[in-house]
Amino acid sequence: MSRQRTEPVFNRVEGLRLECGLTRQQLADAVGVHYQTIGYLERGEYSPSLLLALRIAEVLKREVGEIFSITPFDQNEERKKSDE
Amino acid sequence: MSNEMKSKVEGEKRFYWIEGVTRDEVIRSLTDQRPTRLRQQGVRRALVVVYSLLIGFLTGAQHLIPMVKLRTYLEIAGLAGVLWLYYVLRTSVRHISDAPDELLDERLIQMRNAAYLHAYRILVFVTLPFIMQAYLMAKVQGGGFDRIMTVTLLPFLMLAATLPAMVLAWTLPTEEAGG
Q1: Interface predicted TM-score (ipTM)
Q2: Which of B103, B106, B108, B154 is buried most deeply by CB count within 10 Å?
Q3: pLDDT digits (tens, 9 = 90+) for A70-83
């Protein structure tokens, strides 16, 4: 096992899930995981594999980068504004 | 329930010989969203403590209780308790510790594998007292093989079989309500 602390992965799964009108169970069923895994994911306590991230993106009809990020999403929006 | 999980439920009823569980048993356990005290961390930890004490009792009863008849009855009751708690502990962690990969998602597989890693490390430490007891019984007390089996090997095997579930029961947080 690595001694390095796992780098956090930030996500917007909960907000986008609610926008789509899905419960955790429904999203879990759609992507083939246990409903608690969605909960852990939303709280940032679990980082999904690439396959799971892609499945979630497909269900939520977003790009993976719009849902998951290694920097907090507030910082992402500020960076985009400064680039513009 | 997802289509994947439905197909698993409706599929052939299968018994996983190495894991000692049926497909139905695991799926039902994983999808059960009824509120139960077994999902609370405090209750699970209490089960782990009681189970450990029972194993300790079964191993050390011969030193604690000199009366043979009383000790035998208590050992039988203790063994029944161990077998029942073995089932309860596995149920409390939704059979994650005993489920094959195909019935778990990626997070549950990671959780199960980590539990086995910790259980293996613990097992290295707990094996020594059992070996010492067996040696003492054979060399010093002149115990027969059947007696050594009952008071040493049987509790050890039950502990080894349950350790991954005990690790999970101790470490898992109280579960949130169904989503």
Answers
A1: 0.80
A2: B103
A3: 988 875 555 555 55
C-alpha pair distances (Å), A47 with each of A24, A51, B108: 16, 11, 13
Whether B175 and A36 lie within 8 Å, measured CB to CB = yes
pLDDT over 60 at B166, yes or no: yes
| B9: CB partners within 8 A, 6+ apart | B1, B23, B24, B27, B28
Model-level pTM? 0.82
Q: Which of B30, B31, B106 to mutate to test the interface with A (most CBs of A within 10 A)?
A: B106
Domain A10-83, CATH homologous superfamily name and number = lambda repressor-like DNA-binding domains (1.10.260.40)
pLDDT digits (tens, 9 = 90+) for A5-43: 568 889 999 999 999 999 999 999 999 999 999 999 999
Nearest chain A Cα to B7, which residue? Answer: A32
Q: Please report the beta strands in chain B, taking only residues with DSSP state E, as ranges in sequence order.
A: 15-16, 21-22
- Nearest CB to B108 within list A1, A23, A34: A34
DSSP string, B76-104: HHHHHHHHHHHHHHHHHTTTGGG--GGGS
The domain limits of chain A are: 10-83
Note the residue count of chain B: 179
How high is the pLDDT of residue A81? 53
